[in-house]
Design brief:
heterodimer, A: two-stranded antiparallel sheet, globular, B: 210 residues, mainly alpha, two-stranded antiparallel ribbon, 7 helices, 2 strands
């Protein structure tokens, strides 16, 4: 029943997307409510719930429940962050109409994909989920480029779907139609021994399909171009959620159908592992070289997806279980990273790294969130996320490639460290004019009067020049003007303003005062100023939501919610025996990623 | 080979050729609708009523989504580069190749006609799927996805209702995304994504009636 409800909510959301006007409040509210209901339903659901339709069925495993619930919660927090951070150059981005609904559409399709007992059902469902991206890929600004990139995305997702459908279709002729995804065990009867060359081609087709949709290097061009034109919050769904679902379906097919055939496919696996290793290395290099925070995020996702490809290159049940556990952390942490970028952009009005100098000095909560993201992403020995990565690398690679892989995955510290180092430098004009959440004493405020005037002058210059996205330096303009107003205020009011900075509660009063002065401003920029004040008002809320998301990722990375046991148990929970009885099998190997004994 | 299935395969291919050859967007969608509606019947034994119903409803919904954008007025898309005779010949040749290679090295459980139709649609859809025009691109990608499902139906056992539901959802997703793309491209100034005949320049160089 819970599964049907989640799928139904997803379908309802699809209708909502189709009918809603851009910027419609009802669509945002309805989508957010749908995400909250889906999360509640999934958290309340009992693992083992089964629905049988003809020869196939859906079984909600503990892993599937956790994966879907994590997506729902992450989608809800991401929507909240997008709402709080506001838009940049898109008039509708402050009301991300399609975001929660697209998240629900993806959730509904992924619910079928991760619960299906047959790869013949899981693959088209995951491919359908992967095609939910275009619902959120368009941004009003840069529309011509966005359309081109949308066409590329559609082509990549469809071609990936075709590759996977052909592969699973071909293997369906091997016998035993109802082979469960993730079922450890040879199908009951294999009447035909497949030619290994054809099997290798089919395997390469599946890996290429996953790599293409996931944007793994060398198929990353469309994904990184999309990152430059898609709405920022949508990147989490486009680049992390949807490929993760497709990867899960491919892993289920590989584990349940391909691995039991016993064909080593050494050459083909070598190709897949090579692509995975190169992606792990070059993804870190690419993320470290980017000058836009969105592209850093995109390349970091591209890098992490390569670990999934490495797992696909093994036929090891331990690696499959490990990568399943890692995928839950991956989608939550990358959603948190995207939300962090959204909040940063919202607070300072730019995504260029040179414009974000000093962000950490001005917004410590976002620094804390970045730290939580780093910890959740990499972990340390003993944590589930670290052990999962180690298990995949151990299983997939031999020395010295294993060490290279480990170092490459730890090289994520390079771009995270670069972001932090930029945040510690002297504030840029954008940052100086943007959100500042530090409490100030009156004396310090008076001292800042002169520097505020200088910042206003700089900001005035910067406002004339478009930034890399083509947007004007709106935040700098507005913030600079606000500082000039503050410097020209009567002393009593300046004192009141300074006192108002002392605490969050009084800070609300300050914002109200500033808001009143904005409303009284007679110039033509009044509306933009009001918008900026609105953003500054909500910037701490955005940071708080990002922090919450990052902490959720960290908790999952540490193995909370029995993630490790659920990932290993996914192998048995979706088995035909379990679906018949409606109960998940007990899992003796819950404490480790060791392969399950075959029954 | 079952003659009924052979006729159905020819109908599927004819719909595919029509979808990529005509210049009227509505006719292209009608051809595509024909292929989408007939394709699920290409199975032996026949799918369950629930599965067939799911595919028919999904096909109707899938085509309706881009139809809402192109239904007003006669909208033109660029003609096929090769022309319909060449497209039909390519589809027939690929279909025969599919027929001859039935099973692809394995003992197939499905009908040869399904695989033949799948191969034919692959040949027809491939060029369109790599075109630049949004509607043509979407039609080509839909044909490719449909081709993959037909090849699967020709190789494995008859798809169950849940699989048919999932395939139907996939087809709706492809054409829904195409509708979003065509709609977005249609708002661009100077786009040749979907042109109305009324806007075509007249032979003397003057713009047509708006």
């Amino acid at each position: 029943m819970s599964l049907l409800l989640v799928v139904g909510i997803g379908l309802g959301a699809a209708v909502l997307v189709l009918l809603a006007r851009p910027g419609a409040t009802a669509a945002v509210a309805g989508g957010s409510l749908g995400l909250a209901v889906a999360a509640a339903v999934l958290l309340a659901a009992s693992p083992g719930e089964a629905i049988r339709v003809g020869p196939d069925g859906l079984v909600l495993s503990a892993y599937g429940r956790l994966f879907l619930a994590a997506l729902a919660v992450a989608g809800l927090l991401l929507t909240g962050t997008a709402l709080a951070a506001g838009g940049d150059d898109d008039p509708h981005a402050s009301r991300p109409t399609a975001l929660p609904a697209a998240a629900l559409v993806a959730l509904g399709a992924l619910a079928v994909a991760v619960s299906a007992t047959s790869p013949l059902v899981a693959v088209p469902a995951a491919a359908a989920a992967a095609l939910a991206g275009p619902l959120v890929s368009l941004r009003a600004a840069a529309r011509d480029r966005a359309v081109e990139n949308l066409a590329r995305e559609l082509r990549a997702a469809s071609v990936a779907a075709v590759a996977l459908l052909l592969a699973t279709g071909w293997t369906s002729a091997l016998g035993g139609p109802a082979v469960a995804p993730g079922t450890a065990g040879v199908p009951a009867a294999l009447p035909v021994t497949p030619p290994s060359a054809a099997l290798g081609l089919v395997y390469l087709g599946v890996a290429a399909g996953v790599a293409l949709r996931a944007g793994a290097i060398p198929f990353h061009a469309w994904a990184t171009r999309l990152a430059a034109t898609a709405p920022r919050p949508a990147l989490a769904i486009l680049l992390a959620w949807l490929p993760a679902g497709l990867l899960l379906a491919a892993l289920g097919w590989s584990e349940g159908v391909l691995a039991p055939l016993g064909s080593p496919l050494d050459v083909e696996r070598g190709v897949v592992l090579g692509v995975g290793l190169v992606g792990l290395v070059l993804g870190a290099v690419g993320a470290s070289l980017q000058e836009d925070v969105e592209l850093v995020v995109a390349y970091s996702i591209v890098q992490d997806v390569s670990l999934g490809l490495l797992a696909l290159g093994t036929f090891d049940p331990a690696a499959f279980a490990a990568v399943r556990a890692w995928l839950v952390v991956f989608v939550v942490v990358k959603t948190a990273f995207v939300a962090w970028a959204v909040a940063l952009h919202g607070a300072f009005g730019t995504g260029r790294l040179d414009g974000l100098r000093g962000w950490l000095r001005r917004s410590p909560p976002l620094g804390l969130a970045l730290l939580a993201i780093v910890v959740a992403s990499l972990g340390w020995p003993g944590l589930t996320v670290f052990e999962a990565r180690q298990t995949v690398l151990r299983s997939a690679l031999q020395e010295p490639a294993r060490t290279i892989g480990l170092l490459a995955s730890l090289a994520a510290l390079l771009y995270y460290g670069r972001l932090a180092a930029i945040g510690l430098r002297a504030p840029s004009t954008f940052v100086a004019a943007g959100a500042d959440w530090r409490p100030r004493l009156p004396a310090r405020q008076a001292e800042l009067g002169g520097s505020a005037s200088r910042a206003a002058d700089d900001a005035g210059d910067a406002a004339e020049a478009p930034d890399a996205d083509g947007a004007t330096a709106e935040g700098a303009d507005v913030g600079g003007a606000r500082n000039v107003e503050a410097a020209d205020e009567p002393p009593a009011r300046r004192l009141a303003l300074a006192a108002a900075r002392l605490g969050p509660a009084v800070g609300r009063l300050r914002l109200a005062v500033v808001g009143l002065s904005e409303r009284r401003a007679p110039d033509a920029h009044r509306e933009r100023r009001a918008l900026a004040a609105w953003r500054l008002d909500r910037a701490p809320i955005a940071a708080g939501l990002v922090l919450l998301l990052a902490l959720l990722g960290a908790a999952l990375g540490a193995g909370a919610f029995d993630l490790r046991a659920a990932a290993v148990g996914a192998v048995t929970a979706a088995s035909p025996a379990a679906s018949a009885g409606g109960q998940a099998s007990p899992n003796p190997g819950a404490a480790s990623f060791a392969p399950l004994p075959t029954e | 080979m079952n003659p009924v299935l052979a006729v159905l395969a020819i109908l599927v291919l004819a719909g595919g050729v029509m979808a990529v050859s005509v210049t009227d967007a509505r006719l292209a969608l009608l051809g595509l609708a024909g292929s989408l509606l007939v394709a699920p019947f290409l199975a032996d034994p026949e799918p369950t009523t629930l599965g067939l119903a799911a595919r028919v409803v999904a096909a109707t919904l899938a085509v309706w989504l881009p139809w809402t954008i192109v239904r007003d007025g006669r909208r033109l898309i660029a003609p096929s580069v090769a022309g319909w005779p060449a497209e039909a010949a390519a589809a027939a040749a690929a279909g025969l190749a599919g027929l001859a290679s039935h099973g692809l090295g394995l003992q197939a459980a499905g009908p040869a006609a399904a695989q033949a139709a799948g191969f034919g649609l692959l040949a027809v859809g491939l060029v369109a799927a790599f075109g630049r025009e949004p509607l043509r691109l979407g039609v080509g990608l839909t044909l490719l996805v449909l081709a993959a499902t037909l090849v699967r139906a020709g190789l494995g056992p008859t798809p169950g209702p849940l699989e048919e539901l999932a395939i139907g959802g996939l087809l709706v997703a492809v054409l829904g995304s195409t509708a979003v793309l065509v709609s977005a491209a249609g708002h661009l100034p100077g786009t040749d994504a979907v042109r109305t005949e009324a806007h075509r320049p007249s032979p003397d160089g003057a713009a047509g009636r708006g």
